Structure prediction request, 167 residues.
Amino acid sequence: MKYLIPSLLAASLIGGGIGFSNLALASDDDHRGPHHEGKHDGKGCDRHKAWMKDLSDEQRKKIDAMHADYKTKKMAIKEKMRDAKVALATEMTKDAPKQKDIDKKIDAILKLKREKMQLKVAHKIEVRKVLTKEQRVQFDEHVMNKAKYGRKGHYGKHDEHGHRHHD
Prediction:
């Protein structure tokens, strides 16, 4: 038991370091790979952000500022979630863990997940307000595709044989 907590802490630090190194690679255009060549405008892959192509400079500035604020708030929530998960792991690894205390830690994590999701939805609603009626059509399509198909969107779907399809 006396080695468990230091081992968990070391694993967290190593995992965090790997995550940060991946972020550093992801931000470097030279390391994006061939699937991004010629398709990157600094805001993500064009086909995933088609709704952004017709933004005016004023709209882009507003949305960029809103997005920066959103990301700052999201990161704060994610840091709290990380702390809450460590607290849960610590509680679970006690010699005699109490389910009541574990449930409290789980509730704290779920509350933060709810807060993060509410922040995300509020951000999308605010972005939508900046758009024209025509731009909202593409934005709404983007939102619906992400809801249906997840992070990779429509473009990341594979059939049962692992083949990628682009409808």
